[in-house]
UniProtKB/TrEMBL annotation:
InterPro entries given in the database record: AAA+_ATPase, ABC_transporter-like_ATP-bd, ABC_transpr_TagH-like, Bact_Polysacc_Export_ATP-bd, P-loop_NTPase
Keyword Thylakoid: no
Lineage, broadest ranks: Bacteria, Bacillati, Actinomycetota, Actinomycetes, Micrococcales
Protein name in UniProt: ABC transporter ATP-binding protein
Chain segments carrying region Disordered: 296-319
Pfam family, one: ABC_tran
Domain of life: Bacteria
Ranges of compositional bias, category Basic residues: 310-319
GO molecular function: ATP binding
Coiled coil: none
Keywords, in A-Z order: ATP-binding, Nucleotide-binding, Transport
Residues annotated as domain ABC transporter: 74-296
Similarity section: Belongs to the ABC transporter superfamily.
Amino acid sequence: MTESDLHLDVDLDAELDPEDLVDGPPVADVGEPVLVVDDLHIVYRVFGGKAKQVAAAGNENVREAKAPKRSFVKRLLSSTSQHVGAVSEVHAVRGVSFVAHHGESIGIVGINGSGKSTLLRAITGLIPPHQGAVYAAGEPALLGVNAALMPQLTGERNIWIGGLALGLTPKQVEERFDDVVDFADIGDFVYMPMKTYSSGMGARLRFAISSAATPDILMIDEALATGDAAFKARSKARIDEVRKDAGTIFLVSHSISTIDAMCTRVLWLHQGQLVMDGPTDEVLAQYKKFVRAHREAQTSGRAGGVAPRARQKPSRTGR
Ligand SMILES: Nc1ncnc2c1ncn2[C@@H]1O[C@H](COP(=O)(O)OP(=O)(O)OP(=O)(O)O)[C@@H](O)[C@H]1O
């Protein structure tokens, strides 16, 4: 797969939502550093048949991993004696460094597969770093439908576990319980095991739980806002509400106008590397050029637009 074959899901011309414009363009009132990402590398390991597919795709971030060496006797005695197939490594985030401050709204852009969601998940601690580190003041929380809930437990138990995991006190969970159930619109199903829920009900409850707290560092992956149009509208309103109270926000979105309306600073990832970090208008201007060139190249069958080279020494502040 060449770069020009990459799927391009970027929404250059989306309409701005009216509520994004109410407060005018975002203004940074920047304070203390709250998050340091230092030379972060994230590597996924893909095993078996799937690894062959991934390797066959020829993505630059993917390489075949060396299979662990096992002696002949060990292989002979092993109960899993069948060949496990290839192991591939996907180097999804490659040497990303930046510092985020209190009061910043930071957009993360990049074409499909550039590592945006992986970076967010790594910052919230859902994926361990392969190399490098993430230092956070406070508990970064990912707003979306990815909360790790337990399907065998009732919605009620999951609201308690999820709420406490988000740092709410038992009193706060109790106070917000009815709100979460109403928002998720699951009625008496809240007393049933989550494995009996439809996928929509599960996604709504996950979103409702994750938005019950107001974290210091809020990560929003728009791809995680699922559901029908009415729920999407309610999620958007809830995101805006939580956003107003959070200290620092990260937003992944394919809509350039949403990033433009909400963010004071933008990080541009390409093939897992941070290629630009700066004020929203500067980064978006370059990124739009790249996306247009890429899109034209895709329609004409030529090689794609050229992204800037990854910065050799990313600035620690991005400002
Ligand atoms: N669980 C996983 N196992 C293996 N590889 C993965 C996994 N999740 C993501 N990847 C790979 O890591 C790379 C970065 O993916 P990621 O989802 O972070 O990119 P993205 O920029 O968020 O993409 P999109 O805009 O399409 O959501 C891609 O090559 C992807 O195929």
